[in-house]
Design a protein that fits this description.
single chain, 339 residues, alpha/beta, Rossmann fold, 2 domains, 7-stranded mixed sheet, 6-stranded mixed sheet, 8 helices, 13 strands
């Protein structure tokens, strides 16, 4: 086990808390864990190795104490502090969208395109959105087997993808409505309780949302195919945890369902369900309760009317498992190569 000191920046957010739990379980370092967040979180604590760790003010944090920093914060915070951490000799793994489009910064999904970290000793590594993590882990091995030529995906995203504020808004609106009280949207564009919104992120002039554009861009980078034909529709649903993706792919070469299932069963961290007639498919409640698998795949079937087409269903606890597990996986790769 390596001995390095680590800081989780954004320790009191939903992803930050998931990272602390994942770090505690992974035991990939015997060093100290530091927690940093905004001044509003001072006085809060996290639990690591059965001991409380006090949250420090990010504005005053000394990054020279640590060798690795996870940034689980909004884009603007990463922009303000990542360079400061790197200048102090710290390597940064950023989970925001701040650096995802910068060609000089590798965008990495552990086990999918890990080889990009072998090209150099990087001070900064960007991670894609957790749904891109899940989608690429499922589709990359299929792409290597039969070459995917087209992807169509619709995401159904739990409010936890918007952080603690998303979960709070859904809980408050649900309570108000059940008690005959009015609701006023704050975080989401419209009422999210008992509703579905075909909008995640900001809508741009083209009619796409920032989440849809980001998913397409990130998938092309992670799959190392800038010409990959992919379209996305991102939908916000009134579920606290557990996001879903309905995926339709077209492959260049025929791929039997049995062969596809065999390919996916060899992927570490995937739980593959078969037996559609028995309703043996993953749902958010079941996936959130699972301790091991980060991602479940089911409803695998041949597309109707599309040659070499296959439809499937992906479910994951995208914040508490996919995002955190990928961050830990990338950290382990950095440990091997440079730390």
């Amino acid at each position: 086990m390596s001995t390095i000191n680590v800081v989780v920046v954004g320790a009191t957010g939903a992803t930050g808390e998931a990272l602390i739990e994942a770090l505690d379980e992974s035991e990939f370092t015997s060093g100290d864990l530091y927690l940093a967040a905004s001044e509003a979180s001072l006085g809060e604590t996290g639990l690591y190795k059965k001991r409380p760790v006090m949250v420090e003010n990010l504005a005053d944090f000394d990054f020279s104490q640590v060798q690795l920093a996870f940034f689980a914060v909004p884009e603007e915070v990463s922009r303000d502090y990542a360079d400061q951490a790197i200048s102090a000799g710290c390597q940064v793994i950023d989970l925001s969208c701040c650096f995802r489009n910068e060609e000089s910064v590798p965008l990495v999904v552990s086990g999918v395109n890990s080889e990009v970290l072998e090209e150099d000793n990087y001070d900064l590594v960007a991670l894609p959105d957790s749904l891109t993590v899940d989608l690429s882990q499922v589709l990359k091995p299929i792409h290597g087997n039969s070459e995917i030529v087209r992807i169509n995906v619709a995401t159904y995203q739990a409010v936890s993808s918007a952080g603690k504020k998303g979960a709070t808004e859904l809980a408050r609106q649900t309570s108000n409505l059940l008690n005959g009280l009015p609701v006023e949207p704050e975080l989401f564009a419209q009422q999210i309780a008992f509703n579905i919104l075909p909008e995640v992120g900001e809508l741009v002039e083209s009619g796409h949302s920032s989440a849809e554009l980001g998913l397409v861009s990130d998938m092309r980078r992670v799959m190392a195919d800038e010409t990959l034909a992919i379209s996305a529709t991102c939908v916000q649903v009134p579920v606290f945890y557990g996001s879903c993706q309905a995926v339709s792919i077209e492959t260049r070469y025929p791929l039997a369902i049995d062969e596809l299932v065999s390919v996916l069963r060899d992927v570490e961290g995937l739980d593959v369900s078969t037996g559609n007639a028995q309703r043996n498919y993953p749902v958010p409640l079941a996936v959130v309760d699972k301790a091991a698998e980060a991602c479940s795949v089911g409803r695998i079937r041949t597309s109707i009317g599309i040659e070499n087409g296959i439809d499937l269903w992906i479910v994951s606890d995208s914040v508490r498992k996919s995002a955190a597990n990928n961050a830990i996986g990338v950290a382990k790769l950095l440990l091997k190569s440079s730390l």
